[in-house]
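SEVERITY: medium
COMPONENT: batch folding queue
REPORTER: lab tech (J.R.)

DESCRIPTION
The queue accepted two submissions in a row. Attaching both inputs and their returned structure tokens so the on-call engineer can compare them side by side.

ATTACHMENT 1
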Amino acid sequence: MSSTLPTSIPPVEGDGLAAGARLGAYLIEGLLGEGAMGRVYLARHEQLGRHVALKVLREELLSVRRLVQRFMQEGRIVNQIDHEHIVEVYDFVHEHDPERVYCVMEFLRGETLAQRLATRGVSLESLHSMARQLASALGAAHAVGVVHRDLKPENIFLVSREGRDDWVKVLDFGIAKSVPWAGEVNLVESQAGGLLGTPRYMAPEQVAGLDVDGRTDVYALGTVLYESLAGRPPFEAEPFGQLASDIINHRPPPLPATTARGERVPPELDALVMSCLAKRASERPEMTQFLREEESLLARPLRRPRRPRLGLGAASLLAAGVLTFEPAAPPRAAPPVTPVTVTVSSQPAGALVWRVDTGQPLGRTPFQVALPRSDAGVALAFELPGFVRQEHTVVADQPRQLEATLEANPKRSPLKRRVTHALLDPY
């Protein structure tokens, strides 16, 4: 989707709702996408004028109770997660005469990661930012015992926010699964032994039809990062039998030395991605560990590129005195910048803190960070699952202490809780 409302929407065919049709308080404006179980429409609230996405279960499936429950379970699952990198759901409705089952969701303006990779790719800076956001969202899901099972570039939506165009929304928890250690009522229909997901992004245990846990999502995250760096996923064989064999038995091909944009792939990032693609789930990092490794990687200084060497012809001309270079003036020494120590804490502790202007993670509270002395304020964001995200500005003109008191995210009504959903890939 573009950054504005679409000017041309595909016509509705078959038994779909036509533009101008009314569904509850909403007027249908066009079809955004469809899948095996449902269609997603662009709609507008008649009184408020707000655009939303309506996901409507296909009429022929209304009589299949199991599918109706699966359609509605997505909202219950992600409402339990309640994370800012998840699309909001405003309502779930089961109407009669005529019978309709649909959910009302936030309409996203932006594009999927798949679309971005196909057009201009992503920079290393943007990739680090997206990896952190994805790990945060999936880690929150794992904390309540939910495994996504279908993470892929089509299910990662990018919107513009806070001056960046890589704000992540994880989409489509339609085939998510609760795992035994959730400690709560199982909200998801059991799919033991079932093969659900997108094959190229499946972990070995998933393509084998075995039990899955959070480390299955870690493998998918590694595959997404691998594709973002290499321009292709690690395994692409056809048919499915060969693909499954490759995923289970073969090591991923080495990552290239540079990305499609010409940036050098740091060895530490290479190692982190490959650790996510370990064949055995026990050898992969958990999502919280991945996030710590990513933060540690970003905290390291970037290596300077090597100077290009002269070719033999240029070297010969230089030796003969034909080719000369004016000596460069020595660079002026920059005035020393005295760092200032800022002690950062939160109540409760354990919040992830990063700079709003650069997206750089600084650590988890409590910690100390050295910031360049400056009279300008630095905005820091605090994020902790289950609590409202906060931003605080600190002026690093002298050693300071910054403490944030986080507010618990109140339980919302079922009509106004967050949910992740694929607007372009319903099921």
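ATTACHMENT 2
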Amino acid sequence: MLKAQRVTFTELSEHLKSYEQKYGYSTVDFFRRYQDGKLGDDDDLMMWAGLYHLYLTSLPIRQFMRSEPLSA
């Protein structure tokens, strides 16, 4: 069973880059192929897809937090 852990946006981006280097194509290209069912359901690929999903869902929040001034 996987243990939940915190990961920074930078660490998340680094994980995605390591998958890109390992498999030789961009995360966007990978995800298209993965969703089209062309790559199978290997654990490593499912982890890559999950990390990319986390990246996509956290990006708007990160951008929002950068644009909002902090108030006390």
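NOTES FROM REPORTER
The mean pLDDT is 86.
No errors were logged for either attachment.
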